[in-house]
UniProtKB/TrEMBL annotation:
Keywords: Membrane, Transmembrane, Transmembrane helix. Residues 56-182 form the VanZ-like domain. This is VanZ-like domain-containing protein. It comes from Slackia equolifaciens. It is found in: Membrane.
Length: 338
């Protein structure tokens, strides 16, 4: 027991760093997490939400335990010298022969540290045994590569031992974790996933917001790509020695119009043609059309929706609380009243 306590004592600071970083990473990942859960389950379930945030803590802990502390100063390990890779898969036998029982905790914890990954892969991600084990192997390889390359070149030398034995034990831990999840599923089956094509026409405010965030991310990415293409063309024209004030003015106008066009396409044209499903709405399994509308009423609905969402963007953040209050009172958005 004393051996284990001494071994764990060396990682207390690593765990403290992971716990301290957990709230910040959890907050930053909230929208992607919610989007994934809506897509996978079709709704938010408390157990799934808790599991995901615990998984975030686990991943942070895994990173901190294996990569922290980082080298510092002007000399020392990782800065002026490194540690050679350990590529002998049977080196652990020599460690046991040399250190006896004191070498066992390192092996055991290499297995235990990756058991949660296999459990998460099996129960939450619904991966089979082979894929869960391969996931553990891939994550372990990424960690060992980071250790053996000085965090992928951030530091000139490796500051931790890249050990092939760790790959074996880590993958074994993921396999054991999957087996535990498999046995648990017989006693406590995991919740049902969303059915293919499942879509709700009564989305709550959280699902609406997540869908809108996904849509605006798409608008931003698409606009950036078009901007980059335009700048590349403009650079080519300027490189050819062509100077044109009208061209420069057109470029400035395009910088403003492109996001607007993308916004209308994503929030107007696409859902109009896809039964109220924007790209983001489709991912989180919702339609913005809360009831069937025909003819001019449907056109007016989408025009009003574009106007409301556009005003929210133009007058953000002042307009957001107004919409939230309206939804809290009416349990719907203004355009849903049409």
């Amino acid at each position: 027991m004393e051996i284990i306590e001494r071994f764990l004592g060396g990682y207390s600071e690593n765990f403290a760093v992971a716990v301290a970083a957990w709230p910040f990473f959890s907050f930053a990942l909230t929208l992607p997490i919610l989007a994934y859960l809506y897509h996978r389950d079709g709704r938010l379930k408390l157990a799934s939400v808790v599991t995901v945030y615990l998984a975030v803590l686990y991943v942070l802990g895994l990173g901190c335990f294996t990569l922290y502390p980082l080298p510092s100063g002007e000399e020392g390990l990782g800065i002026t010298y490194g540690i050679p890779w350990q590529l002998n898969p049977f080196a652990f036998l020599g460690d046991i022969a040399k250190d006896g029982i004191h070498a066992v905790p390192q092996i055991l914890f290499n297995i235990v540290f990756f058991m949660p990954l296999g459990f998460i892969a099996g129960r939450f991600l619904r991966l089979d045994f082979a894929k869960s084990t391969l996931l553990g192997l891939a994550v372990s390889f990424a960690i060992e590569a980071a250790q053996g390359t000085g965090l992928f070149g951030v530091y000139p030398y490796s500051y931790r031992t890249a050990d092939v034995d760790d790959l074996i034990w880590n993958a074994s831990g993921a396999a054991v974790g999957w087996l535990v999840a498999s046995r648990l599923a017989r006693i406590l089956p995991p919740g049902a996933l969303a059915e293919e094509g499942e879509v709700t026409d009564r989305p709550g405010i959280v699902r609406r917001f997540v869908a809108f965030w996904l849509d605006m991310t798409l608008v931003g990415v698409a606009s950036t790509i078009v901007w980059a293409a335009g700048l590349f063309v403009a650079w080519g024209v300027m490189a050819a020695g062509v100077q044109n004030d009208a061209l420069a003015a057109a470029g400035g106008t395009a910088m403003l119009l492109i996001p607007a066009v993308m916004f209308v396409a994503v929030e107007g044209a696409i859902p109009f043609m896809r039964k109220g499903q924007t790209p983001g709405g489709s991912f989180v399994r919702m339609t913005c059309e809360t009831r069937e509308r025909m003819g001019w009423r449907r056109v007016a609905f989408f025009l009003l929706r574009l106007f409301v969402l556009g005003c929210m963007l133009l007058f953000f953040p002042l307009a957001a609380p107004v919409l939230l209050i309206f939804y809290a009172v009416k349990r719907r958005m203004p355009y849903d009243l049409l």
